[in-house]
């Protein structure tokens, strides 16, 4: 059976409350269950079709979930522009600067790569050794996008296919080290994954003739749209649907 694990730190048999109340809830009813993999509470849904047997899609989330009960507070998004071209007022800029110094920078240190990567490695290895998974697609959003790239590099090679959605904390070296088919969902305006970095990444991967790569640039979007869309915004929801379809198509082609 195909597994779609979402690494999570919820403590009961339901989704973390922040996913349902502090953001725009999407329509639909969760169909999965919470199980433990390497002591990590993991939201799991199963596929039933034969081609998906022994395959898994792992969703690596942004900074607002997981992290052993220590996610970034969603209040950091207050008054942040939701559409390309919008400018932040001075008071919002000052507030964000203060949040970065007092909250975000210390959080990044607590969850630096030396801390987070071993957890990700252990999880991916357990999927193969304990759950019988033979092929894995890693899908990373924002912070998780970095780890999608890392598990797809030549040194670790823990994933067979990757997709990055408005990735952050990455540089050109991460793309140079990729050794698996890689696709990227990009926002029209993204100060985390800039036009310049995206262009450089495209050039790097275009030179890798032995692996497939593709970039989807969505219109009317800013960083975060693929993870936390506003269901009342038709432009964002169109892009959100595009992103999900893109992930599925990449899995069908390479997973």
Description:
One of its GO terms (molecular function) is hydrolase activity. Residues 125-254 form the Dienelactone hydrolase domain. This is Dienelactone hydrolase domain-containing protein. The chain is of the alpha/beta class and 255 residues long. The chain has a domain at 33-73 and 120-254: 3-Layer(aba) Sandwich (Rossmann fold). It is built from 7 helices and 8 strands. The strands form 2 sheets. Strands 4-5-6-7-8 form a 5-stranded parallel sheet, sandwiched between helices. The longest helix is centred in the middle third of the chain and has 21 residues, at 90-110. The radius of gyration is 18 Å and the shape is globular. The relative contact order is 0.13. The model is unreliable at 1-22 (pLDDT under 50).
**SSE-based structural type:** alpha/beta
Based on the structure given, which CATH architecture of one domain is correct? 3-Layer(aba) Sandwich
CATH class of one domain: Alpha Beta
Tell me the helix content.
Answer: 25-40%
Distance between the termini: 14 Å
> SSE order in H/E notation?
EHEEEHHEHEHEHEH
**Amount of beta strand:** 15-25%
Residue windows where pLDDT falls under 50 for at least 5 positions: 1-22
The CATH fourth-level homologous superfamily of one domain? Alpha/Beta hydrolase fold, catalytic domain
Strand adjacency order, main sheet: 4-5-6-7-8
The biggest sheet, with number of strands, parallel, antiparallel or mixed sense and barrel status, is: 5 strands, parallel
GO molecular function, one term: hydrolase activity
Pfam families: DLH (PF01738)
Protein name: Dienelactone hydrolase domain-containing protein
InterPro entries: AB_hydrolase_fold, Dienelactn_hydro
């Amino acid at each position: 059976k195909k597994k779609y694990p979402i690494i999570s730190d919820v403590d009961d048999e339901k989704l973390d409350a922040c996913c349902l109340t502090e953001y725009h809830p999407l329509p639909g009813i969760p169909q999965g269950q919470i199980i433990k993999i390497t002591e990590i509470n993991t939201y799991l849904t199963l596929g039933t079709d034969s081609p998906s047997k022994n395959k898994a899609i792992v969703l690596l989330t942004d900074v607002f979930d997981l992290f052993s009960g220590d996610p970034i507070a969603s209040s950091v998004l207050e008054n942040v522009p939701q559409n390309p071209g919008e400018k932040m007022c001075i008071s919002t800029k000052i507030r964000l600067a203060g949040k970065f110094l007092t909250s975000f920078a210390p959080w990044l240190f607590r969850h630096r790569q030396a801390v987070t990567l071993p957890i990700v490695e252990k999880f991916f290895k357990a999927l193969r050794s304990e759950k019988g998974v033979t092929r894995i697609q890693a899908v990373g959003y924002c912070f998780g996008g970095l780890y999608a790239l890392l598990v797809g590099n030549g040194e670790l090679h823990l994933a067979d296919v990757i997709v990055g959605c408005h990735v952050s904390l990455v540089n050109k070296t991460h793309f140079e080290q990729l050794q698996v088919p890689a696709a990227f969902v990009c926002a029209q305006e993204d100060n985390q994954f800039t036009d310049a970095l995206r262009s450089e990444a495209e050039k790097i991967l275009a030179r890798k003739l032995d692996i497939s790569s593709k970039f989807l640039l969505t219109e009317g979007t800013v960083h975060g749209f693929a993870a936390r869309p506003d269901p009342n915004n038709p432009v964002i929801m169109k892009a959100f649907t595009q992103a999900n379809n893109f992930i599925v198509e990449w899995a069908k082609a390479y997973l």
